[in-house]
Structures
1.
Amino acid sequence: MSSKPQDVEALIGQKYRHGFVTDIESDSLPPGLDEGVVAAISKKKREPQFLLDWRLKAFRHWQTMQEPLWARVHYKPIDYQDISYYSAPRAPANAPKSLDEVDPKLLATYAKLGIPLHERARLAGVAVDAVFDSVSVATTFKDKLGKAGVIFCSFSDAVHNHPELIERYLGTVVPAGDNFFAALNSAVFSDGSFVYVPPGVRCPMELSTYFRINAAKTGQFERTLIVAAEGASVSYLEGCTAPMRDENQLHAAVVELVALDDAQIKYSTVQNWYPGDENGIGGIYNFVTKRGECRGRNSKISWTQVETGSAITWKYPSCVLKGENSVGEFYSVAVANNYQQADTGTKMIHIGRNTKSTIVSKGISAGHAENTYRGLVKILPSAEGARNFTQCDSLLLGAKCAAHTFPYMEVRNPTATVEHEASTSKIGEDQLFYCLQRGISAEDAVNMIVSGFCKVVFKELPMEFAVEAQNLLSVSLEGAVG
Amino acid sequence: MLNISNLSARVAGKEILKGVNLAVNAGEVHAVMGPNGSGKSTLAQVLAGREDYEVTGGSVSFEGRDLLTMAPEERARAGLFLGFQYPVEIPGVNNVYLLKAALNAKRKAAGEPEVDAYEFLALIREKMKFMHMSETFLTRGVNEGFSGGEKKRNEVLQMLVLEPKLAILDETDSGLDIDALKVVADGINSLRDQRRAVVLVTHYQRLLDYIVPDQVHVLSGGRILKSGDKSLALELERRGYDWVQAGQGA
């Protein structure tokens, strides 16, 4: 019968669709990390002194730090001296000024990935910044956004064109020495995206960054900074892919969000880094620090993530709710198949009065995967009337995977309300049989059940990407019936 | 249509069915009755192809095909429908979406084109009206938050849309009030014709006041101990199952 467990196990072997390598000349630093490398990166990017100083300070601090071991993930020690900290597609002189100057091979790469960089961008109505290995290759719709006063550009461009904004906001949410991986990123980050939405402006289109690791033996360390000024609002989406390689590659990004009074930032992630093969060989180590600060009154930051890739995922998109009445949200679907390991969740730090947070986490485990939700809800004494609602659901497909939930709560104000709901279910044999009995194939049935499980999160995604996320989920779990 | 011959099956190592014989022809309605734990639900699950139920002997043919070698979804597509005793909830999966996928799977297997969304909606609206179901069923998740009665009604709705050749209804009458029972019975009766057959698995004779069976069987201890016409159900109601079991022992 088609639904026997052994067949089902065989079906799990999904194929990663974005695993190709683009053959392009690149300008890379040799592997190794010391102050010279940090200075070299800064020099390559012709950075102002304040940024070099900031990097060096971060690097010195990083050297005193230990890699964190508390996450429920296992991996061989990373040799930080064996990684190249900078790789850029070699351009004739400088970075391309417009799309027309971008190497056609790069454009072809993004076309292959289905990322709208050129004409299709206009149709899709989404502004895209594409980061290839260490540098940003193109940002579309700059003009249209510029008319609205929105700055959307690569981090490097922002350093040159808006140094005052960078200096004012960089590291104010995730300090250079925040944690081991954030400190490493602060020292060696090569590019990323920058968004500034001026007061009262509603960003006229979805903004999107597409990250692609191409070169072997390189790490990717991008940095994203989004500032929504008073009354501004913006919706931002990032997507990620990488080639299939036997060795593991490190991705240690930092994302900082700042929302001032009455501002709103919606940040969505569809993470599909190469997860390694079905035996757990290769794949991206995804150690990411994402944090948003609701600095102003009535501000709102909402994280939505669909995490299907990476050999290891270690990320906790968080909200610091400083402003009175500010709102933090975290909606997550984390899928771990084969030997993938995910330790992900969020932190909601309530500081201001009447702050409110919502956490909805959906973990799906299949194969031999380990999937952990780790979350902290912290209510400080100042957070009068704070409220949190947390819901963590885990779905297991098969008998060899595991799901763990570690919700931490620290409530230091008696007027606060904190609610937590959790469930773990094995993908119902009953549910599956019910669908089979109605003539639906095992594969369609699993897709249907899993999509249903994730529905509340998917509906938070911008519409253009909800479909993509849904498809990605189907591919990730192709045939993963338990 | 359905020919069960000396069927034995076990669940979790325990022998539940011990040589069941039953023949159901097109156009007939059979009622399988029996005390708790007699193997009624096991029989239904084995026919539908539930994996945990291990067939240890005997054979089953369905329209001339060897049913036991077919996967559950193939059985369904071939026209075998099981109305579940406890329909499971599938949160977030739209009721109509599931039903449409089911109908399309069946049509595809039969080499027919997929149903048009507009047509399908019209079809399901008509059947829902027949089953006295409110419009909210269109937007709710599969059995999500349904009352016991709503779940049973939903099973019959699915059956009416899928138009199976053989419907096995496992205690579709339990948990229904008298009005709901009538609606469910009307639904089942509407499907009766010369090309189809129905097997009703039930505890109670009251369902048989509304759906008059051609044959009634008493399943007890994993075997069919007695078969008869409608009057057997009435006699069972009067004399209890002990009467049949005692008769068997003699």
2.
Amino acid sequence: MLQGLIDGTINHAGRDSTTMTDWGLAIKIACGGFGLVFMLLTLLSFSIWVTKLILDRIGNTDPEK
Amino acid sequence: MFGLLESGFHYFYWGNALMIAIGLGLIYLGIARKMEPLLLIPIGFGIMLVNLPLGGMMDYELLLKAPKAGTVLELHKGEGDRVIRGDIVYTLDSGDEGTPVFGRIDSIKVSKGSYVNKGDIIASIITMEQTNQSEIPTRPRGLLSIIFQFGIMWQILPPLMFLCLGALTDFGPMLANPKTLLLGAAAQFGVYFAFFLSLFFGFTLPEACSIGIIGGAEGPTTIYVTSILAPHIIGATAVACYSYMALVPIILPPVIKLLTTKRERSIYMKPQLRKVSKREKILFPLIATIIIILFVPSSAPLIGCFMIGNLFRESGVTERLSTTSQTAFVDILTIFLTLSIGATMSAEIFLQSRTLLILLLGVIAFASAAAAGIILAKIMNLFLTEKINPMIGAAGVSAVPMSARVVQVMGQKENRQNFLLMHAMGPNVAGAIGAAIAGGVFLGILG
């Protein structure tokens, strides 16, 4: 779905800066972009939490010197 | 001068004087007020250099070529004449031909009445305009234009700068409290809000992306995105970003006070964050690189460089690389980057109404980023048993570490027992990652 969003917008965007604003594309960029950033950082946050769990479980958590 | 040397007085006008005053103002802020001196002083000096006419430091040469074969009927400009975009330079029997850039005529290669073939050089124009090289190719001739062309337009300096920032960044506070990543994510709302507003003001999609990314409060990201999408406004966006990063102590407090109550600002957060292990700090840049670049491949130069720099810092076995990245290397890059960015701000480029709009939109981007972080923090408090001080949401504006310091100072004013600095550093560094991802998304769609 994400790849479809990106492919669709690349086909629309082009490099012609003289065309009028495509508000549909702009909304896709804004909502899709913000959603993607938020999703990725949430995923990263989850990954950090999981990494800590795994490290605690294998018992190799060394306190920082 | 005495028929031997051409002075700059003939070309000096009020615009140059105003820009020199602006450059001196930035230098004053850097030296006297100690506001981001490492950035504002070279930027200010670059502005001064480029607005002293005939200095040549930011010159590009554009060769005006005949679009069709024909006879030169008339030459409307001579050597040394100033031109603006659209000025008619010569007339062929097929029609008038104008210049696509502002500047001055350096030399005329043909004479009236001569026959030219398609592609023959008619004249060379010296300009300081940053053009889309695929549409209007130019050749850099000055010291700073060469650094700008091959350092910034070739996208070398900004990612390397991000490498150094990665080496300087401690992700410990963020790893100790991973939910602060969400606050950094929320702050990227400022990017998209400014993006939308820019479109309303008539900017094109690429320009709106370049203006919106100012809200990420990351200089290298702003320069990197703008150099690809809208190089003609790189001076304005970079100066807006760096200036507002220096002005964070002025921009953030009113936003924080508007969106929080005194009681909320007094929320106590335990000063002791959990200890983060060395293994976690080593694994984080590796995991982040894989996850982010798989989803957003176009963020690879920024995220990849950021994380390798951080790995140099955390691995414990690349001390030399880490030390170099944090000291000499970052200083060299700062000099090249800021001096050449300052030199993009000639009067002809900067003194346009759209520059003022960009500056206005930049401050809106910063303010809305802070607001979004605060609002998300307040929403999170509805679900958390151990409340977070919503002010740390404002530190998602990733002017590291200035935003976090502002939050610390404001927290101390409300409650002297409250030490929020390390808590605020979490969203602060998360915002840097978020800004790089946001930049990558823009480039992936429009680059």
